[in-house]
Design goal:
five-stranded mixed β-sheet, five-stranded parallel β-sheet, elongated, binds adenosine-5'-diphosphate
Length: about 475
């Protein structure tokens, strides 16, 4: 008869990498081979969600279910390291990822036109019926945009193109802004919205606010989607005991919950808890996989506690990085500039006195949207469909600022900017040139600045982005 101890030794020494999870997918134990494949300690693996851990590393590993114990709900998984052939396959996938990223960008541009034009139409006086139709177009465009953004992010992840920033930001105003943004939607659904901020968390921290916001928004959107009554609660707290300290976020809801035996499916790409979810609530099943990837890349972990019919609590942490040289006392108060402080009033005036913007953009819809937004903010706008026409207009009527798309036919943004700088010669007042670009890699930014441009705006450009950049570069 084999003793339990002997069984354990056998499990530990197996040549295959094995992982045991509970029904919810939380790792209970793993053998030595697994730890050496993953280069992690066994204690670091315990209680982590198997898909939240492995989906972000799917280029390196695959897992398959080996057996399932019906009494205990325990599941045994085999972990396989991808061989050269599979890695080649995953490289092929990553080139598909690049294609997807390019394709999705092509979809995003006209979508931006639909969203922007609908917003403009909603500002007009229209009949109640037309307003209702426009509201539906706006809502549908928003949900389509979310799907497109998820696919774009996912393909960026697959092709290894998703990079994280490390920039200083004010944590408390960042959280307040997210809460302010979601408040109306939660209240419209008749739910109670609670926010428990932790005062122990220093304000000036370093990280990637765009991506942290994306995780929180994703979890909040799900909470909204799957909660019909009760509440949604957001909490933050600090665990100073760990090194580095951990910044925890909790997003809890009193919604439909997730059955225990389905929780192991979460965080895996393209999965939803049951197929009726797609029909009823929409979605791609990518949101949580992206959240898992992002938290992992930031050095954190995401997991969930949920019971069917009782609600869910998603929790994630990221390591806390403080701004250098900032003592906690110095950290009170924030230096964030509220969006409202971007005042369009500074540049209003009679048409002749208004500052002139020269906009070079080949996409007519983007052109129209930007022109409307800038005219509303009190600017006079000249347009050009490409760099060549832009240069002609620049020479005949010197503008106060130039906004140019990078990817234009005939003469692209880089060449156009260099030509403008050549025409200006040693001018004491060079015109500010702002690039509008979908290229967001650090090397793209570097190239933009090297071509003589002062700044850049990422696509899709919003009216607020435009106002901010114009206010920054034009003083009157
Ligand atoms: P999707 O974009 O389809 O919502 P996610 O990856 O964000 O994809 O979520 C996957 C699935 O997890 C959802 O379809 C849903 O079944 C389940 N789920 C996620 N969050 C919640 C929640 N707060 N309450 C109940 N079920 C949830």
């Amino acid at each position: 008869m084999t003793s339990i101890g002997q069984m354990k030794v056998l499990f530990e020494k197996m040549r295959e990498a094995l992982i045991v999870t509970d029904e919810a997918g939380l790792i209970q134990t793993a053998n030595e081979k697994t730890c050496s494949f993953l280069e992690m300690e066994k204690s670091d693996l315990r209680e982590r969600h198997i898909h939240a851990l492995l989906t972000p590393r799917q280029g390196e590993f695959s897992i398959e279910e080996v057996s399932r114990e019906s009494d205990t709900g325990l599941i045994m998984w085999r972990l396989k390291q991808k061989g050269a052939g599979l890695r080649r396959e995953s490289r092929r996938n990553s080139s598909e990822g690049t294609v997807m990223a390019a394709l999705t960008h092509e979809i995003r541009t006209p979508m931006n036109g639909i969203v922007g034009m609908t917003d403009l139409a909603l500002e007009e006086e229209v009949s109640p019926v037309l307003r209702e139709y426009l509201d539906v177009i706006r809502l549908s465009a928003d949900s389509l945009m979310r799907v497109i953004n998820d696919i774009l992010d996912y393909s960026k992840i697959e092709s290894g193109k998703l990079t994280l920033e490390q920039i200083p930001f004010s944590f408390h105003s960042f959280m307040d802004e997210i809460i302010r943004m979601f408040s109306p939607q939660v209240k419209t659904k008749g739910l109670e919205f609670r926010y428990n901020p932790s005062t122990e968390i220093p304000d000036r921290i370093i990280g990637d606010p765009v991506r942290i916001r994306q995780i929180i928004q994703n979890l909040l959107n799900n909470a909204l989607k799957f909660t019909r009554e009760g509440h949604i609660e957001v909490s933050t707290c600090l665990d100073p005991e760990t090194n580095p300290p951990r910044l925890y976020f909790y997003i809890a809801d009193s919604g439909i919950g997730i059955p225990l035996n389905k929780q192991h499916l979460l965080f895996k790409s393209f999965t939803q808890v049951d197929s009726s979810t797609t029909r009823k609530y929409g979605g791609t099943g990518l949101g949580l996989a992206i959240c898992a990837y992002l938290t992992n890349s930031m050095g954190g972990v995401i997991d969930v506690k949920s019971r069917a019919g009782k609600g869910s609590t998603f929790r994630f942490y990221i390591p806390l990085v403080l701004q250098k040289g900032d003592s906690p006392e110095e950290q009170s108060g924030t230096s964030e500039i509220p969006e409202e402080s971007v005042s369009p009033g500074t540049c209003a005036g009679s048409a002749e006195n208004r500052p002139v913007v020269l906009l070079m953009e080949d996409n007519r819809i983007n052109q129209l949207l930007a022109v409307r937004a800038m005219e509303k903010a009190g600017y006079r706008v000249e347009t050009a469909d490409d760099g060549l026409e832009g240069i002609r207009k620049f020479e005949t009527n010197r503008p106060d600022i130039v906004l140019l798309d990078i990817q234009m036919p005939n003469m692209d943004g880089y060449e156009t900017a260099r030509e403008i700088r050549r025409l200006e010669g040693e001018s004491k007042n060079p015109v500010p040139i702002i690039a509008i670009t979908a290229l967001a890699m650090p090397e793209d930014r570097e190239r933009i600045l090297q071509s003589g441009m002062n700044d850049f705006l990422g696509k899709p450009v919003t009216p607020i982005d435009l106002k901010k950049v114009l206010n920054k570069y034009i003083s009157n």
